[in-house]
Amino acid sequence: MKRLLITFFVAVAALFTVASCDKNNENKNKTVEFSVQLFSENEAFQAEGVTVELSEASGAAKYEAATDAEGCASFKVPAGDYSASVLYKTSKDGELLVYSGSATFSVEKNATEPFKIDLKKVATPQIIIKEFYSTGCQKGTGTYSDDAYMILYNNTSEEADASDIVISALQPGNAHATNKYYVDGALLYENEPWILAYSAIWWFKQEVKIPAYSQIVIAIFGSINHSETVPDSVNLDNEEYYWMSNEDISGTFKAAKYKRGSNVKPEHFMTTFPVSAGTAWVVSNNSPAIYIGKMDKAEAEALSKDTENYDRTSLTNAKFPKNKVIDCVEAWAADKVANSKIRFSADLNTGYVTISNNLGHTIYRNVDKQATEALPENEGKLVYDYAGGTYDAATGTGSTDPSGIDAEASIANGAHIIYQNTNDSGRDFHERVKSSLKK
Questions:
Q1: CA pair distance 67, 119, nearest whole angstrom
Q2: Low-confidence ranges of the chain (pLDDT < 70)
Q3: What integer pLDDT is reported at residue 128 of this predicted model?
Q4: Which of 71, 240, 312, 354 falls 20 to 30 Å from 29 in CA-CA distance?
Q5: CB of 214 within 8 A of CB of 157?
Q6: Based on C-alpha coordinates, what's the Rg of the chain?
C-alpha cells in the first residue's frame, strides 16, 4: 500500500511540474510588440535609419531594428527584460556628431506608449589641421621657403567630406608685427561674429573625400619635388596631393614660386579670388596663424568678392564668419615670443606653439593618448618613445608631443591615430624637427 501511495504522489508531482514548465514556456515564448522612441535634448530625435540594438537581460538573444522618419524603432520579441542601446554617427557643417544612449525595461505585454532612449550628443571636427609647414629650410649658404604645405586629417572613424573646406590666414602675418587690431590691450574682433581672412580664401573646385583616419596634402606654392634641388626640402609632386594653384587667377598671384609639378592632377587644383593685391598668398614663414572653415564654394567666392564686407583697419581683409571656422593653429617665432600677440579670439583658440625659422621644422599636432590607446584595433601597433620634437631638457626649451606616441611610426605600423583637439595651439601642437613627408 505504501508503495502505491508513493507512486501516486510522484505521478501527481510530475503532472504539476509539467504544468508549471508549460506555463513558464508559454510566458517565455509569448511574442510582444512594442516600440522605442529616440530623444535628444528633450526633443524627439527624428532621424530615419538609426539602428537600435536590443539585448535580452541574460544576453542570450540580441535584436536590431532601424528607426522610421519619426525616430521610432519597432520590435516583436518574446516577453522579458531587455536593454536597448544606440550609437549613431553623422556629420553636419564639418563636425562629426556622435549620439549615444541606453535604457533598460521589462516587456510583458504590448506597450501602448513607446519606451524612450535619451541620446547624448558629442560634437567634434572631423577634419583638422594635422601639420603645417611654411618656415623654410637651408639651401647651401642660404634659405629656401617655396615649399610650404599643409596636411588636413580626418580625425574620426567615418569618411569625411572635405569638398566645402576653405583655408585662410590672419593678419598681421607675423605674430610679432605691429597689430592694429589690438585696442586698449584687447582684440578688436574678440566679441565680433567674424575674424579676418587675409589676402585670400582658398577652396576646392571638385568633390573631396577623406577616408577614416587618413589625410590629404596641400602644396601651397610649388607643387614640385623641391628636394631635387634642395635636399633638406620635401617632394610635393604627387598625384594624390592638392595644390593652391595660381593658374586660373587672372592678373595676380604670379610670383615665380608658384610652380606646377607634373604629377598633381588638374582636378586637385584649388582656387581663390584674391582679397588684396599681391604676387602670392600672404602666409608667414616664421609665425603663421592659419585656419580652416566649412563653406560652400559659391559662398566663399561671394564673400571674397564682397568689398562691402572688407575690413581695412590694417591692409585689406575679408570678414570671415566665426561660426564657419572648424580648426586653427597659431604659431609664434621661437625667438620673437616676447614681442608676439595672439591673433585668434579666445572662442576659437587660446595659446600658441613656437616654431624655429629656416630649419625645415614643422608644426605638428599632438596625439590624443587616451583616445588612441582606447581603439581596440591599435593593440600591439602603437610605437612609443617619440623623439621627433625639439624639446631640450637641459635648457627647458623647445616642444614635443607629451603623449610619447610616435604618430607616424604607429601609422606605418597599421595603427589609427586620434589627434588632440582642445582649441589651444600650445597644447595641441609641437615643433617637429623633420617633416612627416620625409620618411
A1: 14
A2: 1-29, 59, 93-94
A3: 97
A4: 71
A5: no
A6: 30
Domain that holds residue 236: 126-366+419-432
Q: Is 255 inside any structural domain?
A: yes
Cis preceding-peptide flag for 172 (omega within 30 of 0): yes
pLDDT at 13: 42
Model pLDDT, residue 92? 73
Longest dimension (CA), the chain: 119
How many independent structural domains does the chain possess? 2
Give residue 109's pLDDT: 77
As a whole number of angstroms, the distance between CA 80 and CA 57 comes to 8
Q: Are 86 and 119 in contact (CB under 8 A)?
A: yes
Residue 94: what pLDDT? 67
- Whether 345 is covered by a domain: the verdict is yes
**So what's the pLDDT on residue 5?**
40
Last residue of a domain, one of 104, 124, 144: 124
DSSP label of 366: P
166 and 80 housed in the same domain: no
Residue-level pLDDT at 28: 53
Take residue 110 and report the three cell numbers written for it. Answer: 504590448
Q: Is residue 356 part of a domain?
A: yes
Whether residue 59 lies inside any domain: the answer is yes
Q: How many residues does the chain have?
A: 439
Note whether 231 and 328 are same-domain residues. yes
Which among 229, 228, 224, 216 is positioned nearest to 257, based on CA atoms? 224
> Is-contact 298 334, C-beta < 8 A?
no
- Residue where a domain terminates, one of 124, 152, 181: 124
Task: Say which amino acid occupies 182.
Answer: Y
Residues 224 and 77 in one domain: no
3-state secondary structure 333-359: ECCCHHHCCCCCCCCCCECCEEECCCC
